[in-house]
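Regression report. Comparing outputs from two consecutive submissions.

Submission 1:
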Amino acid sequence: MGMYDQIKDTLFCPFCGEKSNYFQTKDMASMLDCWTINEIIEFYKKGEIIEIYNECEKCKKWISINLDITRLKSTVSESKVKRK
């Protein structure tokens, strides 16, 4: 078992809807750092994909989410545009 980074945002299991406060990834620095998804969006470059994963404590299914930084950055920048 190696080192990893932790995602400290609350996400939901796509299978049963249970909240989870613990996801991890080995696609970043793997230095046992804690990140939010917004921090990942700010720090990583467009074109990168960060996989975060966890096993749901309730239904025991494996959850794997690919964060596409290009799509996330464009979504965040669109939400900051003021609508008239």
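Submission 2:
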Amino acid sequence: MKIVSIDPSVNHVGWAVCDGLTRDEHGVWDDSASDWRWGKWDIRSNSLTYKLREIVEWMIIEFDGLTEGDLLVLEWPAYFGSQKGQVAAQQGHTINLAAVDAYIAGFFRLPPQDVYLLTATEWKGNIPKEITRRRFFRALGQKKIFKIDHNAVDAVMLLHTFAKRKRITFRLVSSTGIPDED
């Protein structure tokens, strides 16, 4: 079983996956053999329809898509009343992010109880991306911070936050992508 988190975009999609999770008969998670990976996809298609299809094709290539029993964690777009947030909403960016999330969940036909929608405020609060990057790099001990895209960082931290809250894992991910004990 795996958990996939997506930082949605129509241009640069951040993703993270924790694969190889098991649960015992009492519902206790075992992540001792889990494999953490992450990255970013640059979406090259022109129209929104083709972009959506390209995103799910990347998911199929990268981690064999999603099947029954897998969990999907998506950053759900939120409206921000700032000038930047108003411009994003007026230009359709907020709706397009919701379209990415809905398309992914619908394409893989996951049951509603296996899809988790979290706004950025719900999973990280109101901190800027640079603080999230610092937390990621501090947790991972990563020295070359310029090599990992901020979209991938957000997807990893979204997955990490979700897994801790659900008591799925208490482990941190190392710079190699392999979880280490806290």
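Expected: both submissions complete independently.
Actual: both completed, but the second showed a warning that disappeared on reload.
Relevant detail on submission 2: Residues 8 and 122 are 16 Å apart (CA to CA).
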